Amino acid sequence: MVVTKDDTVTVTANIDAGMPWRRSYGDNLVYTDWRRDNYIFAIQEVLRTRGIAVRRLGVEDDSLPLENRNKIQAAFPSATLVDVAQAAMRQRMIKSAEEIEVIKHGARIGDLGGEAIRNAITAGITEYEVALIGTEAMVHEIARTFPDSEIRDTWVWFQSGINTDGAHNWATTRKIQEHDILSLNCFPMTSGYYTALERTLFYGEPDARSLELWNINVEVHKRGLELIKPGAVCKDIAAELNEIYVGHGLLANRTFGYGHSFGVLSHYYGREAGLELREDIDTVLEPGMVVSMEPMITVLEGQPGAADTGSTTSWWSVRTEPRTSPSSPSAPNTTSWAPDPIPRRACPPLGAASGHSALCPLAAPTGGHAPFRIRKEI
After folding, report:
1. Domain 92-374 adopts which CATH fold?
2. What pTM value is reported for the model?
3. Of the residues 168, 221, 260, 267, which is catalytic?
4. Which of 54, 134, 190, 306 is the most buried (most CB within 10 A)?
């Protein structure tokens, strides 16, 4: 995309024909592959036809291949290429009201994907089958909510047993077994906007140590929600939450940062590295930023609390924005179920199984999501 002081122009390949123009804002120029480097020539044409004599050209070095950077420099020999990646990232950190509305819908749609997954879980079903069910539910709801949208990129990571050791492990053909720990990760994508529902489940009653570890993660999550507010510093949030794990002897089991930005993101788009709740990030949270709170610990297989598998995880999603009352500076949550280790009420049947869930929808929900257990009908 070429951005001038007056307009924006997407530069796209002829194989996509008119679709990029229909699905983007601003003008569009299509190039063919009949001659090598027509893409670079198209960029030249965009600027030439606008009468722009290029002296300084902003590029995003964090995603621009060196070969293409050299070609752009050769095409504009008198121009200085300036890396604007960090500045562009910081612009993306602050969401507009319209963007936040899309993200809120994404949180709701992710919940529906999680519900479809919960209803599908039974012994013998494979991870990939569960993932397909969750994905289908979300895609249908995206189409219903945004009837003029492009449908693409929505996906589910669903892991069971040893495969839960990595948060981003793809679904496999492994079949769910009794006493498995499970991890669901629903990613509804609407026009490139990412939201996530990520939860721990147990197929069968969790053992005492697994439940203890889950409650520790609930403790970390709740404190994290309290810390997310305008003026808080990302690294300070991480440092304080680390102390909770230290108190339980679990800091070495923590796998990654406590949260990250939401918005324009997916499994290959990347995200705002400057808005991560990690020890090396000194960004100050501001109104309009959207972040998650997602503590995760991994327990090695064979150790107490590993649930006969590889890990126990607990992930939540929240956002930070101004409160309507100055006396309530904390950040509201976009998710719809409250964490509670005690089952509230019976949930709908789970195929051949029936369960009580710690995250059934409540009449007046507060807070984030929590892991839930799935118990066979007795």
Report:
1. Creatine Amidinohydrolase (3.90.230)
2. 0.82
3. 168
4. 134
